[in-house]
Amino acid sequence: MSSTDFSSLNLKPDLLKNLSSLGYESMTPIQALSLPAILSGEDVIGQGKTGSGKTAAFGLGLLQKLDVKAFRVQSIVLCPTRELADQVASELRRLARSIHNIKVLTLCGGAPFGPQIGSLEHGAHIVVGTPGRIEEHLRKATLKLEFVTILILDEADRMLDMGFQDTIDKIIEKIPSSRQTLLFSATYPDEIADIACRALKNPTILEAPAVHEEDTIKQYFHLTNTDDERMSALRLLLAKHKPESALVFCNTKSDTQDVADELAHYGFYALAIHGDLDQRERDQALIRFSNGSVSVLVATDVAARGLDIKDLDMVINFNIAHDAEVHVHRIGRTGRAGKHGVACTLFSDRETHKLETLDIDLSNVNDPLPSAIYLDKPIKKPVMTTLKIDGGKKQKLRPGDIVGGLTGKDGIPGDKIGKISVAGNWSYVAVSSELVKTALKKIQNDKLKGKTFRVRILS
């Protein structure tokens, strides 16, 4: 018997029999790593992407622990979207087929509230839902969590991206501290570390092996002797590679704005970030870039310092960095978390000596630029578009209200909603560009929290 066989685990016989009937024999890497710790009652942080088998991992853990005869909520699974919650609930029901009279209930925004109250009155063992709607039921005392023994945070990084950190904290306050907590996330940013520190006790941290090659950054160096050549080279590189996110470095504030303006003139979705911008302009530029509704951010080293930008496809040094350490720091922003990144540096004949100070092998520079034909090709539109809502925390607007408002009747699917940022008097939400008109009408025609808010496309 292999150590990756489900039969090697100390699972209830009915669960093992059902797994066999479902065709589950060998565990995936994340299951093999996490299930022994989960079944022994440990808190676990599991890093694994969608499709890694994490639902079965935490599903078997909560089903093993469940007392079917005690008809009360014993497990709660928090998911970022209604679609994921439905998938998780469906998978839990499949895994629980051999357990009689088990009830799995989904509680998500975008669905009528009344029928959910009725379902809760009839009781449930497992609740799967979105943070906003779960917290609403807790506030209205229609859901009680005092008997919960296991809490699962699924796709935790996505929930934090959508602005649910405060909501999750409020939910956790209502769950006994003696619970077991399992957190699953595709990435592990600082915010995840913060919530893990507050919500988990001495967690075992596990990362499923990457299914791709080691992190690599492919560097290119392009000779451009005039300002016009340099600008054309930048346009060619962006047009050929079509990055969903590219960071362009300039050495001065004025160059940063000029380059961003020039790119915008040629139809690129580009913004500048530098010290002369006021806080509102800076915030909007960062929000639009980080949520995928702007493809190119042009920045100085100072302005880019401290930016937490994940999954950068490309870095372009429009100007050469002042020293080797800065150069390494710039290009190190791409090619993270097992992904491949591209880093291009533009230089002139007069700047060749600067490359030497960067420890660049000069025999390996002057890569050919893409063909000029790329300038005639259509520019790729960002996959997301940002909506600005004239309401925020002071109007008691929360991320869950925005998700619920967008996903209700005649709305958009929850998995088409990106990052949500809620400030004092405004909120930003990224939605799939192909559905932005539907999203706009939904908020314009319906109310959020019983109030009408002005909303517009940010451009």
Automatic annotation (TrEMBL):
Helicase C-terminal domain span: 216-380
NCBIfam families: PRK11776.1
A matching Pfam family: Helicase_C
Record-stated family: Belongs to the DEAD box helicase family.
PANTHER family in UniProt: ATP-DEPENDENT RNA HELICASE DBPA, ATP-DEPENDENT RNA HELICASE RHLE-RELATED
Lineage of source species: Bacteria, Pseudomonadati, Pseudomonadota, Gammaproteobacteria, sulfur-oxidizing symbionts
Gene3D superfamilies attached to this UniProt entry: 3.30.70.330, P-loop containing nucleotide triphosphate hydrolases
Domain spans labelled Helicase ATP-binding: 35-206
Annotated PROSITE patterns: DEAD_ATP_HELICASE (PS00039), HELICASE_ATP_BIND_1 (PS51192), HELICASE_CTER (PS51194), Q_MOTIF (PS51195)
Keyword terms of this UniProt record: ATP-binding, Helicase, Hydrolase, Nucleotide-binding
GO function term, MF aspect, one: ATP binding
Sequence ranges assigned to domain DEAD-box RNA helicase Q in this UniProt record: 4-32
Protein's name according to its UniProt entry: DEAD/DEAH box helicase
Source species, domain of life: Bacteria
Residues spanned by motif Q motif: 4-32
This protein's GO CC annotations: cytosol
Tagged with keyword Metal-binding: no
